[in-house]
Amino acid sequence: MAASVFCCLRCCRDSATGHIPLKEMPAVQLDTQHMGIWGVGVATQKVNLNQIPLGRDVHSLVVRNDGALYHNNEEKNRLPANSLPQEGDVVGVTYDHVELNVYLNGKNMHCPASGIRGTVYPVVYVDDSAILDCQFSEFYHTPPPGFEKILFEQQIF
């Protein structure tokens, strides 16, 4: 399933990637409605959305449901053991074109990951009955300074 980025996207099955390249410093928040296998992060257009979990190649950088941040099949960082997302938690992600940072219920987890190159897009995937409510604007928690909702690129003629 490929989907466009909406203000609120409920991801209940398979993978979704936005069709809008990230030009600004965006923030994304997930409300974990039903736990299962899931991940959120950024990916290039070359990512294989049928290969779950993402983070196995150079085309995606994601935080997974187990708290690990993966890129190129390498664990780049991990959430603190006492801070793994539980059902009902809000997981926030920011990306500044270098580092992906993770927030749990509005608190910075201080476990950045980097390594992906090129034009990237927001990506979310679920499996094993996971349900995530994805917010790309009107966040539950205020994003850190310098980050805001995903802005859609516009062409002026």
UniProtKB/TrEMBL annotation:
Q: Give a Pfam family name.
A: SPRY
Please state what the protein is called. SPRY domain-containing protein 7
InterPro entries xrefs: B30.2/SPRY_sf, ConA-like_dom_sf, SPRY_dom, SPRYD7
- Highest taxon listed in the record's lineage: Eukaryota
Q: Where is the SPRY domain?
A: 23-137
Read off the Gene3D superfamilies from this record: 2.60.120.920
